[in-house]
Amino acid sequence: MFLSQIFAKTSKESSSEVSSVNADLLERGGFIHKTMAGVYSYLPLGVRVLHRIENILREEMDKIGTEVFLPALAPVENWRKTGRFDTVNVLFQAIPANPFSARHNDAQYVLGSTHEEIITPLVQHFCSSYQDFPCAAYQIQTKFRNEPRPKSGVLRGREFRMKDLYSFHTSEEDMLEYFFHKAIPAYQAFFSRIGLGEITDIVLASGGDFSKEYSREFQTRCPTGEDHIFQIPGTDTRYNREVAPSKAKRWENASEKELPRQDVSGKGIIGVDELAKYLKIEVERTTKTLLFETENGKVVAAAVRGDYDVNEAKLRAVLGCKALALAPAAVVKEVTGAEVGYAGPIGLPENVRVVWDESTAGRRNFECGANKTGEHSVNVNFGRDIPEPKEFFDIKVAREGDADPKTEKEYTVYRGSEVGNVFTLYTKFSDSFGFKFMDKDGKEKPVYMGCYGIGTTRVLGVLAEVFHDEHGVLWPENVAPARVHIIPLAKKESDAPYKEALSLYKKLQKQGVDCLFEDRINRSVGSRMADADLIGVPTRVVVSEKTLADKGLEVKDRRTGEIQMLSVAAFLKRFA
Amino acid sequence: MFLSQIFAKTSKESSSEVSSVNADLLERGGFIHKTMAGVYSYLPLGVRVLHRIENILREEMDKIGTEVFLPALAPVENWRKTGRFDTVNVLFQAIPANPFSARHNDAQYVLGSTHEEIITPLVQHFCSSYQDFPCAAYQIQTKFRNEPRPKSGVLRGREFRMKDLYSFHTSEEDMLEYFFHKAIPAYQAFFSRIGLGEITDIVLASGGDFSKEYSREFQTRCPTGEDHIFQIPGTDTRYNREVAPSKAKRWENASEKELPRQDVSGKGIIGVDELAKYLKIEVERTTKTLLFETENGKVVAAAVRGDYDVNEAKLRAVLGCKALALAPAAVVKEVTGAEVGYAGPIGLPENVRVVWDESTAGRRNFECGANKTGEHSVNVNFGRDIPEPKEFFDIKVAREGDADPKTEKEYTVYRGSEVGNVFTLYTKFSDSFGFKFMDKDGKEKPVYMGCYGIGTTRVLGVLAEVFHDEHGVLWPENVAPARVHIIPLAKKESDAPYKEALSLYKKLQKQGVDCLFEDRINRSVGSRMADADLIGVPTRVVVSEKTLADKGLEVKDRRTGEIQMLSVAAFLKRFA
């Protein structure tokens, strides 16, 4: 590819709006262009990387499934059947844009954010006997999600490319067999081939809208990753923070004498750190008490040590309820008699259950809200001021320093960027569509499903986040926009370096080695060299009068910076 | 590919809803599945054909442009800038599907039906000097169009795949040079490679929403095609009926004596054929007079011979107006004094211009509406009843039998199915975005553009429409879902024919020859053979005890039906 033929250009300066490493590097390198918030155009070099990623992925998926291409427009009724039309908070719909269009056809469609609602009835149409199973189908396609704040470049867009695979089984065992022994190994093979294998871990995560079980995420270790991974040291067990069971580092002061409880004023103080400072106590002595309402309108209180936050998913599991939301101010007022911010466990109505996090155990003379606007109680003690809780639970968001409750080992915590996820769906979606099969024994039984996603544009973004230096991206060989970037230092096309460079380009292309050729000879040497660094092709070759007087080519490894002089023949051998 | 691994199955019966050849063949062959009206899922075999089409297209487009991938979601403001948000009658928009989603982000987006509104400002962002031109970018992507009655399978869907190419130039000459000498030859190369070259013609057609000039359509000759092509015999000039200039076959009766004009009753008679029968006159003696309103509310009458229809585009050109619509009933009543259906040229108000089609010239004693409800005038004559028109125009829809007005040669008429189109856009879109460039002379000048489309899913449908027999599709070699379809006749996998067939499959795959392998040995021989015909892979190979006792393989050419016995070695040589 001749660089003069790419209309898109690199840019020395970061755009003023850029807020993520991947967007900055990919925009400056001429890989992507922001069309609007969360929506990107892929430029010629970006398309090349994206195709390479998707072709490798296709090869790995073909080993465990068959490719289909499902529509982005889905019937609303399918989404009503699964109950997700009204609940998925990133869902778009497509409707006519103007009255002329509406007169044509005023139907309303779902714009696919995921494809269970299409693939389940599709496979149901064709498969009804146990002999038709197992089967698996995947696609690589554009997805639409109405993300609230798409700020992380191509990592989380309103429109993005995704590979989604769905598998169908006659039993839980077969589903799990496929999940662990086909899908996960295929994912690992893919991540290895694109250079992420050694830095990508399998992590237990939430099942989200899809499943009550843990899902598995593939998390690439990355200092700028948005997820926090909690690993039990010496094991392969890793949790996404959202589901990590946690045991707080004990803060105990059992030796302290119980002091008289006092209600003190602390109006307008925001945050536990400020409160601790104001009260001149340790932050671990403070208590956060939050009131929640369940789907039945029941009010519960959740109490965690001040240096923790409440994890709603964990709290839901303790309560055995489906939905949970922070109680509105009016309810807080009614239940506690105080404005929001001063709730505490003392003197709550009897029907309000208090769930205590284990981080609150073992403390004496602790602080909590006084259930009076502007007031806090200090020197509170279990047994004396509040009944000693019968049981302590884990309802907090895990923090660095916490331990795994079972092994009691302190977690190793690091950041990760999600590059894929896999879900066991059991019969959730087949139940919605009444998708059953006739088994050998003549009985109808429900179909088990799994679903498996990899966002290919997201993978492109993560590659830029993990592989770069201060000059630009460092693409792994298999996904680079080209394998060699050739720069002739010449004033005109008839000069020897240009002719030699072009001859090398043709030889390499003939050998099947994709190259970029820097034919914009009117640009300065410096800007052409800077472009090569920004674009990040693994090998840069400079041909100049000087190199021709020497062995012929100056070959630079973009990653190590190592420079070698090589003859054309020796260089071509590398790709033989 | 093993057929047992494809969950999608063929079907002997046509679906009851099927209304087009392509949908019938492609659904029965297991290539596509209708998700809903105008929206299809592509099944494993369909995806293979689609990929082959798109990869060949990509190779040809890479020779004249560079690949990009633009978002489906577009900013509404861009579509307002070009004035198309309110006027394109197939436009969809994307908005949140539920209140949770709306709370996230309630923005409204256009869902792309075409991409001038994205590519123009994108190229504008990067290109501002004459040195940056010409440039061209294409993408292969899903498009969304709210078609009123999507009845022709994958030929016209609400969601479909399309290759769209856009070119940018510093002058009209350069635009035309690219249009005729790059884009059109690249299209021809593509159609040749997929087997449509010899039956695909370049046809002059309307510029539609894009241009006032003729566009060029690539029309594949096809008896079921929805377009009518008018060719001037012995030349390469072909028109789509919508724009074909036409001269009617004269119907003259100048030797007749003028008879006294009469108003006769003919209430409730619908259509000119019925009217002619009722009046006992030739249909050519009747006249259709239609009243139209222009964008300024001016009323005009258009009169064509009874056996023709009015072509609004031609009438617009004669009148020099932008928009035209049939006058509402109330206006017709006011102007003619009669209900709709009885308008005629005699005695219309002076400010109502009558435009006469040339088909009406040379007639005596003709019929027309009497401008009285239920009445027709017969034996009407120019000069006596109505002033002889000063000029006759061509405002009719061309019909078989018509001649080209210039050469006076009678058109050859045949049906075609559109597979591509190319437009010269001039500065229409660059003007909307203020896209100018700095020329060598230091002056700012407008950028010229062209756009060029090929619907890849549509091409897939046209291939099925033109290449099939009563048993199924006959795929051209380059786009077939596989090159060889292997069927072992065996009861179990350990039988010799199965083992031999599998060995052949592996050898072919190793040689890079894509095969389908019929491993569903529990199915009847007849149904497996019928499937091979339905799927339409060019070469079928049967391996049985009988063929093994002979030379080894029974090789059938799907297109000719010719059967040969060949040894494995001889067969493999075909693909060497």
Protein model, in words:
The structure is a homodimer of 576-residue chains. The first copy, chain A, is α+β, with helices and mostly antiparallel strands. Chain A has three domains: 201 residues, 2-Layer Sandwich (BirA Bifunctional Protein, domain 2); 119 residues, YbaK protein, CATH 3.90.960.10; 92 residues, Rossmann fold, CATH 3.40.50. In chain A, 26% of the residues lie in helices and 27% in strands. In chain A, strands 3, 7, 8, 9, 10, 11, 12, 20 and 23 form a nine-stranded mixed beta sheet that branches. A five-stranded mixed beta sheet of chain A has the order 27-26-28-29-30, sandwiched between helices. In chain A, a hairpin with a 5-residue loop joins β18 and β19. In chain A, α1 packs across α11, α2 runs antiparallel to α6 and α2 packs across α11. The model of chain A has no long low-confidence stretch (mean pLDDT 95). At the A-B interface, β1, β2, α2, β3 and β4 of A face β1, β2, α2, β3 and β4 of B.
